[in-house]
Amino acid sequence: MNILIVHCHPEKQSFNASLTNTAEKTLTKQGHNVEISDLYAINFDPVEKAIHYKNRVNTSKFDVLSEQRNAYKTDTLSKDVKEQIEKIKKCDLLILQFPLWWHQQPAMLKGWFDRVFVAGGLYTSKMRYDKGYFKGKKAICSVTSGAPLSTFTKNGRGGGEIETILRSITFSLHYMGFTVYPTFLSTEIQNKDFTYKSEEQFKIDLEENLKAWSSHLKNLHKIEPLKFYGWKDWDEKGNEKRD
């Protein structure tokens, strides 16, 4: 199986980096081919803007959807976007590795979604959801947070249940056709200077978390994907069908 890890963290010595390294080692040992897109390392530009488009549809007004559609059609997408698209096309499983910043993904990763999931090429009005471009591929988010696991409950101080917090991300993956697994959440991940744990316990817990992530990946095929509605579940107005 071909696996793409999109890694989004600015620090090479971060726990997110350790999670990515653990995933790479675990999956490689299982015989899978693993490729990593480290967005900070490659200096990926997350800001969608006119300068990315050399063959403009309209040079007096920048309309993102029109320019993306035209660039895909004329094969004039920027090199960095083309490279990311080709990597996704090759993979069977997409892993998004990132920290939870302000209850969402870092801006770098949001910009990756904005620029890489190209309108008119990777999705159209009819090529979405269970008929999406990447139908048949799977995806999972591996996320870190400094908050304790006990806080990620409805109305909890962690901001709610993790699947509720990350709904915009997992639903966007579903929108593109991916089968999405439940999020793997690593909690109490913070600088050792900000933890109440002893240094020894802090290290033990981090190691246990890495082991849990490795085990999770080995057994991913046994896990039930998240449930999302598809075209047959909506009426002509896009609302849930009622019996």
Automatic annotation (TrEMBL):
It holds the Pfam family Flavodoxin_2. InterPro entries: Flavodoxin_fold, Flavoprotein-like_sf, NAD(P)H_dehydrogenase_qn. GO terms for molecular function: NAD(P)H dehydrogenase (quinone) activity. Residues 1-193 form the Flavodoxin-like fold domain. Gene3D superfamilies: 3.40.50.360. SUPFAM superfamilies: Flavoproteins. Keywords: Oxidoreductase. One of its GO terms (cellular component) is cytosol. PANTHER family: NAD P H OXIDOREDUCTASE-RELATED (PTHR10204), NAD(P)H DEHYDROGENASE [QUINONE] 1 ISOFORM 1 (PTHR10204:SF34). Belongs to the NAD(P)H dehydrogenase (quinone) family. This is NADPH quinone oxidoreductase. The lineage of its organism: Bacteria, Pseudomonadati, Campylobacterota, Epsilonproteobacteria, Campylobacterales.
